[in-house]
Write the structure tokens for this entry.
Amino acid sequence: MEGYWPKAEILYDGVHYSDILMNFDVYNNEIIIFYPEKSKEKYVVISKENLAEFSFTDSVKNRNHHFVYIELPGIRGKALYEKVTVSNTSVFIKPVKSVEGISAGGQGKFSNSYEYFINTASGYVSFRSKNQFIKLLALHSAELNRFIRKNELKINDRHPESIIAVLNYFDTLK
């Protein structure tokens, strides 16, 4: 996801691997393993079909990330999601990288965004905006809106940390 190779725990084809240097190429949707062998550097792209999950600690933000390759109930197709659980609320965050602003010369700029899926009584539901998010947590909408304003949080496809902060606050309101 970034320009570094964190040590990860990987569950692949039923086998648990520890301290594997890996990276997730969001744009090409590939898992890449750095594999030094006999003083030669190898980069191996592994099949997602045999991947169950991986986790690593982001050394910059000191945050543990846990990704799973699954098909969410109510959402068609398998994908790689970051699993975030706050008390009884389950949210999956799907990182997306796209190319924007392509000029006549073919140059563009990578853009990072996220898709969010929250567990409701009827399966997982996607949301993209503050209004959609608050509507899913309607029981405490006034308190959540105050919390978002007070903390100047941005609820959109660019700030998953804000979604997590709101869910942590929502958990205290139950």
Residues 71 and 78 are 4 Å apart (CA to CA).
